[in-house]
Known about the structure:
By secondary structure, the protein is mainly alpha-helical. It has helices spanning 14-23, 26-29, 32-35, 51-73, 81-92, 100-128, 133-157, 162-197.
Amino acid sequence: MKKFEVKKYEDLNKGERIKADLYSRPNFISGRYRVAQLGLDDLVKIKDSDIFFLETLKIKADLADKVFEEAKSQGRDTSDPSVIKELGEEINAAGTPIHKSESIMTAIFTSLQLILYYGIAMGIWGLVFKKSFLVFGIYGVIAGILISLLSVAPVIAFQRTKEKIKDMVFGASTMWGNLGIIIGVLGLVVWAIRLIFFK
Length: 199
C-alpha cells in the first residue's frame, strides 16, 4: 500500500507552494471559488512545474478574494450562491488564464507571419529595382525578425490571458502586419507601372 508523504512547507517546490497557498485560502475552503466557476478548485490536474500558469491562477485568486471582500463590505451576502456566481462572472471577465506554451506558440506564429509579410514585400521591391527577389526578400526577412524580436514576440509571450493575447496579436497585425502589406502592395503597383509604361 502506497504511503503518502507529508512535506514541510519549506521543502515544497515553487509550484507546490502556490497550490498550498490556494488550497489554504478561506474562499477555496468555503467553496466560493467552485461556485463562482473560476477554475481555481481543481488544481490536481495542473503540473507543479507549470509555474507560469499557477502564478496566473494565483493572480486570479487574489482578484477573486478582493472582489468577494468588497462585495461583503458593501453588504452583499457572499454566502448566497447566486451572488457568488454573479461575482464570478465579473472576475472571469478579467480574462481566461493560459499556459505559457500557448502564449509562446502564439508569439512565434505571429512573428512568422510578420517575417513572411516583410520578406515578400521587400522581394517585390527587388523586382521593382530589377534586382534579385531572393536577396531583397532576405532583407525583408531580417527586418521582420528584428520587428518581431524587439516589439512583438516579447509582448505577446508574457501575456497571461487569452483576451490579452488576442488584443496584442490584433495590435501587432494592425501596426506591423498592415505596414508590411502596404509596402508590398505599393511595390506591386510600381512594378506593374514599370512593366506597362517603361518596358
